[in-house]
């Protein structure tokens, strides 16, 4: 698995290269903390990723890339009305909590697909993530404020 392109090719920037494996291993740590019996119901919160060393602004990018490359599956939670439903993670190289075998989706990620993620699909995923659940704010008034009076130059005579 360590020689596979899905694992080897990380993000473009240095910080993102550090965040991707940290996010992945934080999920693996959560898996081992549950005696490897809760795969598919693993909950890792944003503060837990940050405390493990994943930069806060890159948590979502790292999770999107791990899911794209087939290393994890993310069952998106939601928040609202005072009740939070966290994201639940599944490691694809290990069987799940119901006894199903590993799906090994990471084996289908080729080097070309990984490059495609770095070049184009990363931005598409970020744009899609930015649109979900957020209302478009409309301005209350026209941003172009008309001048109070016509500007004119007055000469003192």
Which quaternary structure do these chains form? single chain
Q: Unreliable stretches, pLDDT < 50, 5 or more residues?
A: none
Strand residue content: 5-15%
Q: What is the average of the pLDDT values?
A: 80
CATH architecture: Orthogonal Bundle
Radius of gyration: 23 Å
Number of strands: 4
In the CATH scheme, what's the topology name?
A: Arc Repressor Mutant, subunit A
Rounded to the nearest angstrom, the distance between the terminal CA atoms is 88 Å
What would you call the structural class?
mainly alpha
How many separate domains?
1
Instruction: Describe the sheet with the most strands.
Output: 2 strands, antiparallel
Mind explaining what this structure looks like?
With 157 residues, this protein is mostly helical. It has one domain: Arc Repressor Mutant, subunit A, CATH 1.10.10. Helix content is 39%, strand content 9%. Strand 2 and strand 3 form a beta hairpin.
């Amino acid at each position: 698995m360590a020689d596979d392109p899905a694992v080897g090719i990380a993000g473009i920037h240095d910080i993102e290269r550090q965040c991707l494996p940290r996010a992945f291993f934080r999920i693996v740590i959560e898996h081992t903390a549950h005696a490897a019996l809760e795969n598919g119901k693993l909950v890792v919160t944003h503060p837990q990723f940050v405390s493990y060393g994943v930069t806060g602004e890159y948590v979502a990018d790292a999770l999107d890339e791990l899911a794209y490359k087939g290393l994890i599956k993310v069952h998106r939670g939601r928040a609202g009305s005072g009740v939070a439903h966290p994201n639940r993670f599944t490691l694809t190289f290990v069987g799940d909590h119901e006894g199903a075998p590993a799906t090994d989706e990471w084996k289908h990620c080729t080097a070309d697909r990984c490059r495609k993620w770095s070049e184009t699909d990363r931005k598409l995923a970020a744009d899609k993530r930015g649109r979900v659940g957020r209302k478009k704010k409309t301005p209350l008034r026209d941003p172009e404020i008309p001048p109070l009076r016509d500007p004119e130059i007055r000469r003192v005579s």
